[in-house]
Design brief:
- By secondary structure, the protein is of the alpha+beta class.
- 36% of the residues lie in helices and 21% in strands.
- The strands form two sheets. Strands 1, 2, 3, 6, 7, 8, 9, 10, 11 and 12 form a ten-stranded mixed sheet that branches. A two-stranded antiparallel sheet has the order 4-5.
- β2 and β3 form a beta hairpin.
- α2 packs across α4, α3 crosses α5 and α3 packs across α6.
- The longest helix is centred in the C-terminal third of the chain and has 20 residues.
- The protein is flat and about 75 Å long.
């Protein structure tokens, strides 16, 4: 049985620049023939991971780390060992796994590893310390294939077995690709859409000046001038988790899968990108959070806003957006939905129809609802 847990959010941000392009301007996109504000899926994925850590929603041993600094992390887990000798042993162990350190001690690209995998590598190095042979100091480093071939067979076997995702929730949700080891790649259980504004948006410019605090009376004018681009928008945010795939990625651990879904629900809602927040402080929570359990196929409801919502004097853009979302969902549900599909929601806008799903009192209650319903679906 396939079960999709969908998240539909309407969220209005005050003037901000949460996610910049290469020119420093807020990202945008054309949708329905109109310019929309946009926050990339990658930006929100990181914000979700940071929110999960900040609020301690996932136990440390079930978190992932995205880094090039694997050497430093492993050295920290080998206390009492000479740093230079440890580096040689670590290089040999990583070569056994098919990874290589550059001359600066960093890996060739960002790795996304579970804390359990990193701890397992450190334990492997301790167990096989004497068998791991480092390259001679000052000597020419071996190539990746040559270094791997020279590693003890037992170490190679164990190192490969260790890289199984380590039951890291964020690795299981968002997936990973290790170019040198396709056998340890993990397909994501979660898909996150780019957030787009429900209405047309134009960029605005903040021209600013700064005064030199210790300037003398003879100094006139500003010590610095500049400009920052920004916008303000009501966003539609969408994500979907394949609960069956998540269970598989977490190695069949049902308790961890349910805890991961509860944590993701909270982190998804609490996630706010950090871009330019010291300048704008746009800490705005969603006006609407809807969760739908779907059985046939996921349904992104962004087309509710193919025709942009138009601002009016009598109703907020967020309320209008929630009403359009409900109208579009009802239209699609009549054609594509499964009779087993069901909703739960938080609504601060007052625009979501009563009776369409189970209204929840707060975010914790919504997250618990997700956990309980998925547990029933999975036969717990």
């Amino acid at each position: 049985m396939t079960l999709f847990v969908e998240y539909h959010l309407i969220q209005n941000f005050a003037p901000s620049n949460l996610n910049r392009d290469d020119t420093g301007a807020p990202k945008d996109a054309l949708f329905g023939g109109h310019r929309r504000a946009r926050v990339s899926s990658q930006c929100f994925k990181r914000a979700i991971r940071l929110a999960s850590q900040e609020h301690e929603l996932v136990a440390p041993q079930h978190r992932g780390v995205r880094t090039k600094k694997l050497l430093a992390l492993l050295q920290a887990k080998l206390p009492g060992r000479d740093a230079q000798e440890a580096q040689g042993k670590i290089e040999a162990a990583l070569a056994a796994a098919g990874l290589k350190l550059k001359d600066d001690g960093q890996t060739e690209y960002l790795l996304f590893l579970g804390e359990g995998e990193i701890a397992g590598l450190a334990e492997l190095i301790e167990q096989h310390w004497d068998e791991l042979v480092a390259s001679p100091a000052g000597g020419e480093k071996k190539g990746k294939k040559e270094a791997k071939a020279s590693a003890p067979d037992e170490v190679k076997k164990k190192a490969k077995a260790l890289l199984n995702g380590g039951k890291a929730v964020d690795v299981a949700l968002f997936g990973r690709m290790l170019a040198d080891m396709p056998e340890v790649n993990q397909d994501a259980a979660c898909q996150v859409a780019h957030a787009i504004s429900t209405h047309r948006v134009e960029r605005e410019f903040d021209y600013f000046t700064a005064v030199d605090d210790v300037g003398g009376p003879e100094e006139t004018g500003a010590g610095m001038i500049g400009q920052v681009e920004f916008n303000s928008a009501t966003f539609y945010r969408y994500a979907v988790v394949d609960a069956t795939k998540l269970l598989k990625n977490l190695q069949g651990d049902q308790d961890l899968t349910l805890a991961a879904l509860e944590a993701f629900t909270q982190a998804k809602v609490r996630a706010v990108p950090t871009g330019k927040q010291n300048t704008f402080a746009a800490h705005n929570m969603p006006a609407f959070v809807g969760v739908c359990l779907r059985h046939a196929a996921p349904l992104n409801l962004a087309n509710a806003f193919e025709k942009p919502v138009a601002p009016g004097r009598d109703q907020a853009l967020s309320s209008q957006s929630v009403a359009e979302l409900a109208k579009h969902e009802a239209l699609l549900a009549g054609v594509y939905a499964d009779p087993r599909d069901r909703w739960a929601y938080l609504d601060l806008s007052g625009a979501w129809p009563e009776g369409r799903g189970e209204r929840q009192a707060n975010l914790a209650a919504l997250a618990s609802w997700v956990k309980e319903q998925v547990a029933v679906e999975q036969g717990r």
